[in-house]
Amino acid sequence: MILALFRHFSFFFLSSLVKQPNKGFFRREEEASDMAGYRAEDDYDYLFKVVLIGDSGVGKSNLLSRFTKNEFNLESKSTIGVEFATRTLNVDGKVIKAQIWDTAGQERYRAITSAYYRGAVGALLVYDVTRHATFENVDRWLKELRNHTDPNIVVMLVGNKSDLRHLVAVSTEDGKTYAERESLYFMETSALEATNVENAFAEVLTQIYRIVSKKSVEGGDEGAASSVPAKGERINVKDDASALKRVGCCSG
Predict the structure, then answer these.
(1) 105 with 10, same domain?
(2) Domain span at residue 207?
(3) Cβ atoms within 10 A of the Cβ of 195, count?
(4) Does one domain contain both 28 and 50?
């Protein structure tokens, strides 16, 4: 009798867990699904993957948190692994979901792999305006980016920490000159003061969208069907990107 009651209770307990996937047993799996950004109920027209690259300590993680959560952490420390956050914007009447990837300290070990770049259609290449060495390394980062992505990926060169005006080691003119030579967009930002952070990300996403919509129009109905992805499908930027690239007008 006691054994039968125990079996009955065990069956009832396990059944109750299975019937309530949003509690206890399955909560972690559901949260992981949320983080991935592919839930069916998400209402967006396009999903664009954008990567943050540049030397360690230039402020990539704070740019990410400022843009996606409007937060800044002075005590920010690099974590191990690759992390990303999402944010949705409205561009020309379309809902764009940005999936922003951060190296999370892996650049210190030259451990960034092709998987990090795979599917990216935009990038923010970040240097610290107070550390000239980080600007000198921009060329290496750009070459690596172009080796792993389409050469016409939309790239914004970002001189971060513009609030530290008394410590500037890289002039705005040097940043603009490099961007012009490499056909990049350019802005100086301050994640601390939230200067141009929104503008930098929004410009990249806007240009990606315009490339995609331009391809759809030029291809007609058939082209639109092949160019416009279903939800969760990433966009590949092809040769038309070069016609839209120009140095941005804004600096901090």
Answers:
(1) no
(2) 43-244
(3) 20
(4) no
